[in-house]
């Protein structure tokens, strides 16, 4: 038997979302905006073992109101599995959007580095190479081309989406830790920028006051964005430490203590 949706509104719950969603009534959320596991075992994290399958997205469809929009992040190497599972669950695929960013580290294996290691001549200095990959402007300048002056980069700069230095993280420390007490640090490895998440909350046309569900909320970026844009939210995460960080960022920490 399901629990009334009011019990979930503006709550963050430490639970496997497959269990959490089972308790939710059908047709209850206006949108789902989520950043699920990509199945890459990112940084050795256990929670990133697999992409959510058809059964999960069937349940997501059940709890969504008719016409609700689902936005799910996917990784470049596994997004195809994600999209097929979502479609096989009964959702209609409308589009594929890209969020391009110049930070993070390359997720593919560097074969030349692996060969060197195998031969016992592992390199200690690969930093320069990585920096060049991250910062397209530095590759292009000095070769008669200044990538920073391309029209699309100019537009990105004007809108505040351009990072001058590829080493600047997508979410800075003050943003990821805002509202958190001194002793609590947001160390989630895949925090999403609030500006991006706020944009997505409005893009889905989730009505003001409507409910955004993030079943894999991590450190709560979707939930904070929903709150900042006047929406309600429901968040689930397996890890109590991430739920605590989410609650802190949402200004709900007193409820945890
Ligand atoms: C990619 S991270 C989300 C990060 C988030 N977007 C942020 O900005 O912090 C995915 C999260 O899903 C959680 N997770 C993985 N499997 C889960 C499950 N079955 N139920 C609930 N949470 C799960 C992990 O603990 C992890 O925090």
Describe how the helices and strands are arranged.
Elements: E1 11-14, H1 17-22, E2 29-34, H2 54-63, E3 64-72, H3 79-88, H4 111-118, H5 127-134, H6 136-140, H7 151-158, H8 173-176, H9 194-203, E4 211-214, H10 221-228, E5 232-237, H11 240-249
Parallel strand pairs: 1-5, 2-3, 2-4, 4-5
Helix pairs in contact: 2-3, 9-10
Bound molecules: S-adenosylmethionine (SAM).
CATH topology of the largest domain: Rossmann fold
Class of secondary structure makeup: alpha/beta
Structural domain tally: 2
**Low-pLDDT stretches:** 126-147
In DSSP terms, counting alpha (H) and pi (I) runs of 4 or more, how many helices? 11
CATH evolutionary superfamily of the largest domain: Vaccinia Virus protein VP39
- Biggest beta sheet summary: 5 strands, parallel
Provide the list of bound ligands, each named once: S-adenosylmethionine
Strand residue percentage: 5-15%
What does this 3D model show about the protein?
The structure is a single chain. With 257 residues, the protein is of the alpha/beta class. The chain has two domains: 5-101 and 170-255, Vaccinia Virus protein VP39 (Rossmann fold, 3-Layer(aba) Sandwich), CATH 3.40.50.150; 102-168, no CATH class. The chain contains eleven helices and five strands; from the N terminus they run E-H-E-H-E-H-H-H-H-H-H-H-E-H-E-H. Helix 2 packs across helix 3 and helix 9 (194-203) packs across helix 10. The longest helix has 10 residues, at 54-63. 30% of the residues are buried. Residues 16-18, 35, 37, 47, 188, 190-192, 216, 218-219, 221, 236-239, 242 line the site of S-adenosylmethionine (SAM).
């Amino acid at each position: 038997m399901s629990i009334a949706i009011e019990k979930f509104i503006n709550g963050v719950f430490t639970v496997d979302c497959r269990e959490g969603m089972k308790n939710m009534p059908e047709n209850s959320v206006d949108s789902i905006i989520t950043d699920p596991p990509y199945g890459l075992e990112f940084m050795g994290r256990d929670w990133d073992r697999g992409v959510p399958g058809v059964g999960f997205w069937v349940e997501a469809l059940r709890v969504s109101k008719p016409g609700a929009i689902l936005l799910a992040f996917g990784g470049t190497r596994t997004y195809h599995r994600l999209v097929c599972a979502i479609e096989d669950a009964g959702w209609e695929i409308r589009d594929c959007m890209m969020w391009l960013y110049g930070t993070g580290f390359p997720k593919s294996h560097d074969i030349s580095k692996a060969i060197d290691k195998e031969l016992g001549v592992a390199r200690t200095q690969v930093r320069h190479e990585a920096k060049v990959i991250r910062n397209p402007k530095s590759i292009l300048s000095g070769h008669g081309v200044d990538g920073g002056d391309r029209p699309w980069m100019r537009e990105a700069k004007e809108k505040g989406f351009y990072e001058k230095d590829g080493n600047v993280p997508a979410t800075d420390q003050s943003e990821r830790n805002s509202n958190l007490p001194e002793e609590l640090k947001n160390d989630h490895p895949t925090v999403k920028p609030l500006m991006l998440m706020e944009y997505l909350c409005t893009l889905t046309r989730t009505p003001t006051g409507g409910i955004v569900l993030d079943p894999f909320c991590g450190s709560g970026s979707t939930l904070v964005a929903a709150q900042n844009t006047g929406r309600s939210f429901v968040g689930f995460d397996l890890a109590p430490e991430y739920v605590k960080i989410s609650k802190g960022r949402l200004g709900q920490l007193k409820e945890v203590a």
